[in-house]
Design brief:
The protein is of the alpha+beta class. It folds into 3 domains: about 30 residues; about 160 residues, no CATH class; about 110 residues, Sandwich (Immunoglobulin-like), CATH 2.60.40. About 45% of the residues lie in helices and about 30% in strands. It has a 4-stranded antiparallel beta sheet with strand order 1-2-3-4. InterPro entries: DUF2939 (IPR021330). This is DUF2939 domain-containing protein. Pfam families: DUF2939.
């Protein structure tokens, strides 16, 4: 070991202690300064905002989310696109403001709602019967799990996320834009909101058509069952004035037969009356309670009172002999089952 060399180094160190300490201190300050500057730069970056936002969404930190998302700009932009695809939603002179409030309230509710995985329902009929909601119950959780920073340039960055809607059975891509502001990076726009709203509306309309078709399909099956159980054999109608020469009585007679294995207790009949030439005069829903057992005939008449001096009354009198077209709307069976032909209206809006 070179002891004289070590002695020289130790002596030099003792002689220049202050200089060496100052040098080390300068190095530490420089390193800390560079690290601090880099950390400061990182905190000003879109990457930092993205990670902070993701963590805030994950923990449901509404206060932090409010600092990172410009909800006023975000909702104002989205509400304009909603007005185009849903002009009836919150319709009125204050529509845009109400839609903005609705958007912000819905998002805030999602943040504060416990995020649980949405139940995936594979049965189409069950999905169609379930009331439609705009946002899945795990909307925020899905965003947290799929949120990613795609591109970033000076002043602008894009975030993307994917959300699956269980009732519509569709995936939606969300593209958010972050901008630099005096307060730092803020999420301000849903860039693809026009396309997103259009896609949602198309999926909803497809669902509405499917709901209507489900009613029509059920009606076809019910009509077959009614025909196999309680077929109508005839419907006739006649009309005449009573002694006051004002009251017109239209009498319709219906004949059917129970060819099934269960008794029919009550029934609702839809009857349409027309002139001899086929011009429709009027229609009525006619009810009866007349238990009819298997193998028995059903014979029943209804009387409809009209004003003989009215335009309708005059057309009924002049249109004889009358024609009657009838169909069962409802049959109440002895077993407790009710066979009913439902109305199949135009697709019904679920969002009012």
């Amino acid at each position: 070991m070179n002891l004289p060399f070590l002695s020289t180094v130790v002596a030099f160190a003792k002689k220049h202690t202050l200089v060496l300490a100052a040098a080390v201190l300068v190095i530490i300050v420089v390193v800390m300064g560079v690290s601090g500057w880099r950390y400061f730069q990182y905190r000003q970056s879109s990457q930092y905002t993205y990670e902070t936002l993701r963590d805030a969404l994950k923990t449901g930190d509404a206060e932090s989310i409010a600092e990172l998302v410009d909800f006023n700009t975000f909702s104002a932009n989205l509400s304009k696109n909603l007005m185009q695809s849903y002009p009836f939603l919150k319709a009125g002179p204050d529509q845009e403001r109400q839609l903005r409030d609705m958007i912000q309230t819905s998002l805030l509710k999602q943040v504060r709602t416990k995020q649980e995985p949405a139940k995936e329902e594979h049965d189409l009929k069950t999905r169609l019967r379930t009331p439609l909601y705009a946002l899945p119950q795990d909307f925020i959780a899905q965003i947290v799990n799929t949120l990613s920073l795609q591109t970033s340039s000076e002043g602008t960055a894009l975030l993307t996320a994917k959300v699956h809607h269980p009732l519509l059975d569709k995936n939606f891509l969300l593209i958010f834009r972050m901008d630099t502001t005096p307060e730092g990076w803020r999420v301000r726009y849903l860039v693809n909101s026009p396309e997103l709203v259009r896609q949602f509306r198309e999926a909803q309309e497809e669902r509405m058509r499917a709901q209507r078709q489900m009613i029509l399909d059920k009606n076809i099956l019910t009509e077959r069952r009614i025909k196999d159980l309680f077929p109508l054999q005839s419907c006739s109608a006649s009309a005449g004035l009573i002694s006051d020469d004002t009251t017109l009585l239209l009498v319709t007679r219906v004949l059917a037969r129970n060819i099934g294995t269960v008794s029919v207790n009550n029934m609702n009949l839809f009857a349409e009356f027309s002139t001899a030439s086929g011009a429709v005069l009027l229609s009525r829903n006619l009810n009866a309670v007349q238990p009819t057992h298997p193998g028995e005939d059903f014979e029943h008449s209804w009387t409809i009172e009209l004003d003989g001096n009215s335009d309708l009354g005059k057309r009924v009198l002049s249109g004889q002999p009358l024609q009657c077209k009838a169909s069962w709307k409802t049959l109440g069976l002895n077993s407790g089952e009710v066979l009913h032909i439902s109305e199949a209206p135009a697709p019904i809006e679920e969002f009012q």
